[in-house]
Amino acid sequence: MKSCLFLLCLLLCSVTPLWATNGLTLDAKHFSYNAKVAFGSSYWARKPMTGFVTNSLNVSFYGIATATCPTKEHGPTAGHFPWAKPAELLTPSPQLLMSPVCPQTGETGSSYITMQDGQGVGMYCHAGKDPNLSHNSVLLPYPKDTPGRSGISATYLEFKPDWVVRPWSGPKQILSIITQQAVTARVVDNTKTQVQQNSRLVILNYHCFTNKKPGQSCQFEWNAKLYLEGINPTGQTEEENIMFDPAQGGIPVIVGTTEDAPYWTNKGAPTQRAPSDELKTFNVEMDWAQAQNLLIKFTLIALKNSGTIQSTVTTAEVAKHFGDKWQHPNEWVVINIGVGQEVVNFNIQETASISGLFKTLDVVAN
């Protein structure tokens, strides 16, 4: 089995991407992953962060390093990553294993992602004590006072293809996320910890980004929880479901289960609440009217955060965050497509974890 240890990356998925037009097709209507590892060599080349990261598969393990790992960062990290080379993916049954490792001591983390041809992507996210290791896992949950990441350990995989989906460019102006996923096991104390598995998109207004003004975010994240169990000890309010996430530089984020409304519609399986080996087909849709309502809601919350409470906004007020063409559906593009797991655990002497997989992932402009 060919394997590759990945150094932990804290910021790879959360930085605001820069735009580059090289090789970009703005009229694509469908992204599809179908349990194949060997997409072609372009998917395995990590391009410099000086431009928009395209043609890459990004893996991130979020957490804070143990005291025995002397890294100065919030978790072991490095400026270069040993991405798998195409030759390693051309064996009869190619498999790729990724997990965090401390660059100074070689200590490993408990979380991992594995990809195998025909089987899909297996994911495991761990937070707290690991009885299977003779030492502490190199990666622990973020401290309780960490903005946007309080008590969290997370594992994320994101596709950044060299073309993008224009989500509301189809005749019905409906964006769909369709995926086959399962959570097969978890360790969770429903009174103290929380585990989740989700699908995540980052959607950007192209005109806003290329004409960006101070204070404009130009993009937002849609994070749909496909598995959710336990209690988030920090509590949960609407502002925490629809927010400007401090852990991602303040970009607007909407997080919720598949059943949540009015910002999307569920056409598939409901959010799962107990583990099962059976793959479920999830299908959540956001039409153009729902998307515009969401942009308005983001703007209302931004005004509230600045001390202004009002029930309606003008188009100009929304434009301050998303650009003058925020009402133009063809200006919006999907730039990040991913699946992640998160565990909330404030007691590192206790164990909390989630193990799951996804076999297919489609993002479609209907």
Task: Put the structure in a nutshell.
The chain has 366 residues and is mainly beta. It is built from four helices and 17 strands.
Describe this structure in words.
The chain is mainly beta. It has one domain (30-365). It contains 4 helices and 17 strands. Strands 1, 4, 5, 6, 9, 14, 15 and 17 form an 8-stranded antiparallel sheet that branches. A 7-stranded mixed sheet has the order 2-8-16-10-11-13-12. α3 (288-305) packs across α4.
Quick tags:
17 strands; mainly beta; eight-stranded antiparallel sheet; seven-stranded mixed sheet; 366 residues; 35% strand
- What is Rg? 20 Å
**Average pLDDT figure:** 78
Any low-confidence stretches, pLDDT <50, length ≥5?
Answer: 1-27, 37-53, 75-93
Helicity level: under 10%
Count the beta strands.
17
**Largest beta sheet, briefly?**
8 strands, antiparallel
Shape: globular
Compute the number of helices. 4
How large is the share of residues in beta strands? 35-45%
Sequence of secondary-structure elements: EEEEEEEEEEHEHEEEEHHEE
For the termini, the CA-CA separation is 40 Å
Structural classification: mainly beta
Number of domains: 1
